[in-house]
Structures are given as C-alpha cells and as structure tokens.
Write a structure and sequence with these properties.
Layout (H helix, E strand, L loop, with lengths): L10 H9 L5 E5 L10 E10 L6 E5 L8 E4 L4 H14 L5 E4 L12 E6 L1 H7 L4 E4 H9 L3 E8 L5 H16 L1 H7 L7 H8 L1 E3 L2 H14 L1
Parallel strand pairs: 4-5, 4-6
Antiparallel strand pairs: 1-8, 2-8, 2-9, 3-6, 3-7
Helix pairs in contact: 2-4
Amino acid sequence: MDTIELIEAYPAKIAQMLLNDEIDVGLVPVAIIPKLKEAHIVTDFCIGAETEVASVCLFSEVPIEQIETVILDYQSSTSVNLAKILFKEYWQKKVAFKEATANFREDIKGTTAAVVIGDRAFEQRLISKYSYDLATAWIAHTGLPFVFAAWVANKPLHENFIEAFNMANGYGIKHIDEVIAENTYDKYDLKKYYTENISYQFTEAKKRGLTFFLEKLQ
C-alpha cells in the first residue's frame, strides 16, 4: 500500500483510465486489451469462472427464443461483447442491442431483456423470471473457462513490484473468510460467490479461453 495509489471504480471506468494512461495498472475487463498500445497481464490471478459465475447474466421475462431486444450494461465491455458472441454463435438468434441508461433494469419486460453485472445482477436474480448465466453459456459453447477481468498494465512494471503485488493478491485469496465477515450481504451467499462462482487462478486453461475470446473480438 505504501507504493501505490489505490483508485476504486466500476470496471469500465477503470478500463478507460488505463486507456487514457491515467493509471499504470488496473483490474479491467479483458475486452479492452486489443485497444491498448501496450498490454501486460500481471499476477497469477484474475476474475474468472469455471462454472456458473452468478454475477454476469442475461435477464428476461420470456424464454431466450422470444427475446427481441437486449439492453447492454455499461459497466463492463467484456460482458457486453460476450453477450454479443453468445447470441451470434451459441443461441444463434438475431436481436437488437441497446445501450443501457441509468435505470435500465426497469425496462426488462416483454421481449426486452438485459445483461446485468455485479451486485445488481444478484438483485435481478430475485426479480426476473428467466436468468441466463453468461459464463455457463460460454463454457457450454467452447469447453473453456472464461476470464472476465485481469490485472493489466499499459507499460512494463518493475519485477519487484509485480512480485510483491502478486503476493498481495495471493494473501487476499487466502483470507476470503475475513473479507466475507466484513461485508454483510443479503441478496446472495458471498461464501459461495467468492469460493465457488469466481475462480481466481489465471491457469493455462483460462489463458486459452482468454485468447479464444480475444480472437473473436477481431
């Protein structure tokens, strides 16, 4: 903590700051990697999923076959692009995509669905009749795990910093119970989320999944 200035914001905001060279490294949606002049993935950790991720879903009041319009959450470019790929390749259904407004979840009705991420997805799980987990769909489609976000730097970082930063990430993963104890939440089981839904190790399988996803963005 003595060597960094910590900035907190939603994923797409951090991504824009990295693109603007306002920060040196960020936990960002991986969809921005091709947009960076330089992209260096650092640490052995990521925000990935090997099963249901729970916090990145498509919500609707009708089955997917009846969906005509999909509102795209503005908070993560990765989730937005993942949804587009899945509609084209996995669900093989043409829909109209629409950018989200501030209160876009109120428009999830009729044949209009929405991609929702994060805490709001946990809330929406309790509301919408139909929920389609995007990580589950990707895994069924490709046989590979999915990486939503990674620690990406826009310039080379000193090896000593990377080593210390990697250890700090590892420390956090080993103390998840303490994190849960400090954050009470009644919309979803945080123990399940942090230990079953999110998979943190940036494994070779996840690297293959990430490469495959980035190839589809080109």
